[in-house]
Specification:
The structure is a single chain. The chain is of the alpha/beta class. The chain folds into 2 domains: about 180 residues, D-Maltodextrin-Binding Protein, domain 2 (3-Layer(aba) Sandwich), CATH 3.40.190; about 140 residues, Periplasmic binding protein-like II (D-Maltodextrin-Binding Protein, domain 2, 3-Layer(aba) Sandwich). It contains 13 helices and 12 strands. The strands form 2 sheets. Strands 1, 2, 3, 4, 5, 11 and 12 form a 7-stranded mixed beta sheet that branches. It has a 5-stranded mixed beta sheet with strand order 8-7-9-6-10. Strand 2, helix 2 and strand 3 form a beta-alpha-beta unit. It is globular. The relative contact order is 0.19.
Length: about 350
Amino acid sequence: MLRCFCAFLLVSLSIQVLGDDRPLRVFTWPEYFDPEMADRFQSETGIELEFIYYDNDEIRDQIMAETQGFGFDVILIDDAEAGSYRAQNWIIPLQADKLSHLSDHGNQWQLRAQDAVDHVVPYGWGYYGVLYRQDQLEQPPAHWSDLFRDDAPWAGAVQMPAQVSELLPIALMAKGLRPFIPDTDAIKTAEQALINQQPLVSSYGMPDLEADETKLAQGEALVAVTYNSDAMFLMEEDDRLAFTIPKGGNIQWVDFWTISARSEHIDGAYQFLDFTLRPDVTAANVQYHYSATYSKPAIALLPQSMQQDDRLFPESADSFYVYQHPDRETIRALMRLINTLDVD
């Protein structure tokens, strides 16, 4: 039986020394692993899986800082924080000879892993866009700057991400600026834009993956910034929704599996990582969560409609910006935004 717990409940418990027969604990996003593949892993290996979920990257990072990774075996992280996790010794270097399917994923993902390439394996990738109510809008936002217009038909009904590390790059692109390592003037411009945008925003946070529970479905939002993968998932459930990629630039994100430096289930963690890299498992997960993969053997197993879907594998992906770890000035700006914007 697949057991799932909220991260905050796990962190509130005291960490105990557990035997090898305990479940393999996977710290990840919700709705991001095909339950059938989880059952298959358990059937093939005899290792029970226990998924612990976080709601956003900043919560994950806070929990890791508080626990140092105790209680987790496998941790899903993104390219923005991979180097930081390595530097803080929260994750271990991986042995390639225990990852027989890693070569299927090519080398492109290594450019995204930067200085943590030996500590991670790729899981999924995607980018940002805007999900909107096509039944209520004649035209969607054409440029990121349209989300900041007080005369737009969606003014007051905009849903923006809750993570300031995502808000600031979007505001920079809206102003025609590079989203990473901005200078002082660019940071001030983007900060003010986000402050001025507040009356236009109905809520901060990514759309709920329960279609009936989204702000869009309930009429509280007309447009929502989200990941392309979540948008594709929700459009399958609600035909009133459509997806657009605003002009002005975009950011490619990549999610990686890692093994916690505090794991007491290393062998099981390696088995899980190699399992996720298999073409059949990768293809099943792509069809479940709509995040793209670098694995060509897995792509070949996808339905033709998915292989040719530009929302999943956009031709423009090579021009997308790559996450860069913020410098000190940007970190200070992010902290100011946390205190200024109502993003709880």
